Predict the 3D structure of the following.
Amino acid sequence: MQVQANTFSIALVGNPNTGKSTLFNALTGLRQHVGNYPGVTVELKKGTAHLGDTAFEIIDLPGTYSLAARSPDEMVAVDLLLGHRPEEKRPEVVVSVVDASNLERHLYLTTQLMDLGVPVVLAVNLIDVAAKQRIDIDFATLSERLKIPVVPIQANRGVGLDDLKRTIAEAAAKKQAPVGPAFPEALEREVQA
């Protein structure tokens, strides 16, 4: 796939079984091709999504629990996110896909993604599963506390996808990386020293 100069590169990242591939298929309409990287037997799915005149190259990365890679497929994901894969453009926006019914566990990876220096959008998937379990999430407060956009979605039904695309486009245009938490002044001094 030849990427146009005006195409934004978007990576879908998350723990296994969060619905990344379902989201990928919903965003791209199954228009994909597979990249198989030398040295590993890991395949990344790539496809294109459009929002108006803006094109997005969507990359569905293998599931990972953290950026401390322990397997070849996790290493491919981490290398791509860090821009260490010469055959791939570093993503301009990272979409952290999390399971609404297990949010606390999945936010660990999200906080690591926020340190990469690129915009992060949090896609809270499986909101229907969370609702059945009577889990109520205050998405506005979550966004405020994390200082990143948070979009509730149900990828398998297409719920929230227009809002997600719009949010991704805004994040790509702003190019604003998340700002980490403020630490006590004494800690900051020691870090600087």
